[in-house]
Amino acid sequence: MTASSGSAPARVAIPLRKPAEPNPSGEFDPLRRAVLDWAPEGWRELPWRRTRDPWAVLVSELMLQQTQVARVVPHWHEFMARWPTPASCAVEAPAEVVRAWAGLGYNRRALNVHRSAVAIVERHGGEMPSDLAALLALPGIGPYTARAVLAFAFGRDVGVLDTNAGRVVARAAAGRSLGRAEAQRLADALVPPGRGWAWNQAVLDLGATVCTARLPACRRCPLEMTCRWRCQGGPDPAIGSAGSSGRQSAFEGSDRQGRGRLLDALRAGSVEAVALAAVCGWPGELERAAGVAAGLVDDGFARLAGGRLELI
Fold first, then answer.
1. What is the pTM of this model?
2. Domains and their CATH numbers in the chain
3. pLDDT tens digits for range 168-189
4. Catalytic entry in 21, 27, 41, 61
């Protein structure tokens, strides 16, 4: 998984090229070969690519959601050194995992890691499940993360469809915007037999570094000659396609910002109820701050005890 750009992609006009001749029996073979041949050149050295431990892969994928790789790397190393197995994480209080998550943002993912660890211990004897249904049943684990674990830990031939891969699929393979189910079917169909790990890593790198949202580098893309968008021209098919991210609401002044400030304060210690508005950065907005605090309680982050809010 990769970071969000934080802004909506601009529409890009691509010059027309002569379409490639159709090849129904091996329609995507040239695309597959081009991506796999490019992979050694475009490869990003990432620490979680050196392991097939499904727990380590799961932790990396959850950390990478909406967070830049450079920020994830040191947190992933520290997390795996402290909690190398689901069982070691499950016995900790959720508050410890939330504290360790500081700096990564989207703190609900910290609870999902802990809840998943507990579920893995309780349902699977501490061993990560290796089938899609069982992975999807883990708390907070969606289709992308479940398939990433299958591909990167177990070597399964499944398509891993995140924002970056979704752009490649929509632009290069389909040449049009896709619905969620259609995009996943196409992503699965593109995987060369027996190459699930290498293929998905290459597609994710291609989307992150070349087939980017705002300024795709088509002239240095290995798919320049086979990309359907490049051949057809027209509006960017990745915009609005399943897997591609859309515009996110402004962070400055939002409840998300206040919630983050409150969680950061709670990592250091409990907060008096009367101080919630000030801690959130909204002096005088008592009801708004109380609503954010109630949300943390409802989500399982915190509890009110003796007029103070504290992490669980």
1. 0.84
2. 24-45+158-232 (1.10.1670.10), 53-154 (1.10.340.30), 255-311 (1.10.10.10)
3. 999 999 999 999 999 999 999 9
4. 61
